[in-house]
Known about the structure:
The protein has 414 residues and is an alpha/beta fold. The chain has three domains: 7-81 and 373-412, Roll (Urease, subunit C, domain 1); 87-95 and 152-365, Alpha-Beta Barrel (TIM Barrel), CATH 3.20.20.140; 96-151, no CATH class. The chain has 13 helices and 20 strands. It has helices spanning 7-12, 103-113, 129-141, 167-172, 183-195, 218-230, 242-251, 268-276, 285-292, 299-318, 338-346, 351-358, 360-365, and strands at 25-33, 42-50, 53-59, 70-73, 78-81, 83-88, 119-124, 148-151, 157-158, 179-180, 201-204, 206-209, 212-215, 235-238, 255-256, 280-281, 322-323, 383-386, 400-405, 408-412. The strands form five sheets. Strands 1, 2, 3, 4, 5, 18, 19 and 20 form an eight-stranded mixed sheet that branches. A five-stranded parallel sheet has the order 11-14-15-16-17. Helix 9 packs antiparallel against helix 10 (299-318). The longest helix is centred in the last third of the chain and has 20 residues, at 299-318.
Amino acid sequence: MRIRFALPLLLSCVFLVGSPSFASDMALIGARIYPSPAEPPIENGSILIHNGHILAVGPTATIKVPQDATVIDCKGLVVTAGFWNSHVHILTAGLLHAEKLSPEEVTSQLQEMFTRWGFTTVFDIASVLQNTALIRRLIESGEVNGPKILSVGEPFWVKGGTPVYVRSFLETNHISIPEIESTAQAIGRVRQQIHDGADGIKIFANSIEQNGILTMPLDLAKAIVDEAHRAGKPVFAHVSNNQGIEVAVQSGVDILAHTTPSDDLWSSPFAERLTAAHMALTPTLTLWDVEARKGNPSSDQIEKGMSRAAQQLKTFSQARGQVLFGTDVGYIEQFDTSEEFTWMSRAGMTFQKILASLTTSPAQRFGYSNRSGRIAQGMNADLVVLNGDPAQSTSAFSRVRYTIRDGKVIYSKK
């Protein structure tokens, strides 16, 4: 069935005519618009949307709005391109075993995790591919409201390398993810997952075990990465220390899934080596705060660990490394993005750099620059309307009024 917007939601959107779910034309009127991180804002700007694409953007006086268009009054609001979250997991109880859930239940969980926070595209970097593919089909068919989902499916770890912190979760949910024992097995699985719809591959260059950290052998990592690259797919690496980062660099991994605050500070030459390898980073700073608090540490201990993670991000960013916004949501249950923005700001990232991590950088990294990441004629109408200006305060990135995907409102703050 197709889910329609409830009446209270429609009324809250201040629509003048038409339905946001089904109208082919929509106009956002009177906003401050940031077309991209590199461009100045358009004051009192408007965006005209037709059939899911941006037809025009510019000063309101220059935009001719069709009489039958749905109009959203955005006076006093800010509009940016739709956000990407490049490190998520489709693994919550509200999304696992989706075949047993109603469309309303799936929509509710996707809203709580993603669309409520402005995400129009997410990259799931470890889940059950069959289940994630089902959710993706429900979204694309219109039965469920949600973001565009890219997925790596099941991750790759070595024999004995199933991380200690996920074993009970996998057992409880009857999820079996094979451990890799040979390059032939690894290559075969890469091919199968890509055949089954995976948009990328993830390796555990390090796996945290009961008695230490297990590192993936370089030859195995390289076989996985090379096979994924032959298919034109990006590779993410979970890393826990510099040894894992070394495996990632030497094997040709594209994206580091984390900073490594439990290890050494990152020097400028170290960060420059990562950028020379064309490696991107999802910092997942909120994750480290969540993890640190599990052991009942002192506030000084938490601050020390978080400062180290922020230093690593700062050094990487200063080395002109490509940062991709990512929170590890789905592994952690903290859906609110405000803490991540606070720590990114503390790491010295400017408004423009944070906006790039949410928009142009992931679009470029994953091959979507011609349709996503900017507000321009011909681009997909993936937009976020914010109740505040993040150029003045990064907290405004989390104050989402509307999330629009392909020209349809998929979230509206009530």
